[in-house]
Design brief:
By secondary structure, the chain is of the alpha/beta class. The protein is built from 9 helices and 15 strands. Strand 12 and strand 13 form a beta hairpin. This is Amidinotransferase.
Length: about 325
């Protein structure tokens, strides 16, 4: 069986929402959001529930260990995106994050953290969420795209990413912070780094043209190549269709790239061929969830933790 990579977790946490809807509190800075049309709130919520169910089945079918939690609470429209409120790191480290939107702060779940402690070797949990009261926010692996191999945390400047808190996180978790500005095709700031770029073990996908500063663009491309990765550039059109919002996972037969069907349809044949040289593509159809301005990467919280041995009777 192929050996897992530090970059590609073989286990993940996902949340299946019962009350999904695009979040009215996040439309101000998330230009990727869209309003549902022609469907009732109940129809939208049911469609999102079904999309997550099918995505979980597809991931499990590929050999990914999915820890699925239900969310039946109304008033948590973005709970399907757990990667924003916690992350896990090799050595048994977990971080819990402060969220910009008030209605996202109740997404943090003690039962998820208890499962991690029960099923995996967790050494410590560093909780930054109290810094919400100080107006400091860092929305997990949405705000940061982490290179676990090269020990780098890439972060786009936005109101959801405090540079002060990013520095503190990187000091605690031993990453090098690389902060930059990026905009969409309309010149609006990109709200989360993980819609712009995806870092795999042997490749990276990134919308370099969204980085307006020439020197910074060159620096980031060179930093990504330092580990010998194949750099696949994405256009603004492909970013808008969530091609950057993908995640490499370790499946039964080796690496898989979980990506939305919308994103896959936006890629060209040459890009697909280059990706498939490194990982099997696993497209997931989630058009309703993408109305919220996030895609597959946002739905998946990777578990970079060592599992506890199974207890014998």
């Amino acid at each position: 069986m192929p050996q897992p990579s530090l970059q590609a977790p073989g286990a993940v946490v996902m949340i299946r929402p019962h009350c999904f809807t695009p979040n009215s509190q996040t439309t101000g800075d998330n230009s990727f959001q869209k309003l549902p049309s022609g469907r009732s709130p109940e129809q939208v919520a049911r469609a999102a529930f079904d999309e997550v169910s099918r995505a979980v089945d597809a991931l499990r079918g590929a050999g990914v260990d999915v820890h699925l939690f239900e969310d039946e609470m109304p008033g948590r429209p973005d709970s399907v995106f757990p990667n924003n409120w916690f992350s896990t790191h090799a050595g048994g480290h977990v971080a819990v994050y402060p969220m910009y939107s008030a209605n996202r702060r109740t997404e943090r779940r003690p039962d998820v953290l208890e499962m991690l402690k029960h099923r995996f070797r967790v050494q410590d949990i560093i909780d930054y969420s109290g810094l919400e009261q100080d107006g400091l926010f860092l929305e997990g692996t949405g705000a940061m795209v982490i290179d676990h191999l090269e020990r780098v945390a890439y972060a786009v400047r936005s109101r959801r990413t405090s540079e002060v808190l990013l520095e503190r996180f990187c000091t605690h978790f031993n990453y090098e912070p690389i902060v930059f500005d990026a905009v969409d095709s309309n010149g609006l700031p990109i709200y989360h780094t993980n819609v712009l770029m995806c870092i795999g073990t042997d490749f990276a996908m990134i919308g370099l043209e969204a980085i307006r500063d020439d020197a910074r663009r060159t620096e980031i491309a060179e930093r990504l190549r330092r580990g010998g990765r194949d750099i696949i550039e994405l256009s603004q059109h492909q970013i808008a269709n969530f091609a950057g919002n993908a995640i490499e996972l370790h499946g039964r037969d080796g690496p898989v790239l979980a990506v939305s069907q919308c994103a896959l349809d936006a890629l060209d044949a040459g890009q697909i061929e280059r990706i498939e040289a490194h990982a099997d593509l696993l497209p997931l159809a989630i058009p309703t969830i993408e109305l919220a301005g996030g895609s597959v990467r946002c739905m998946i919280a990777g578990l970079h933790l060592s599992p506890r041995p199974a207890k014998t009777a």
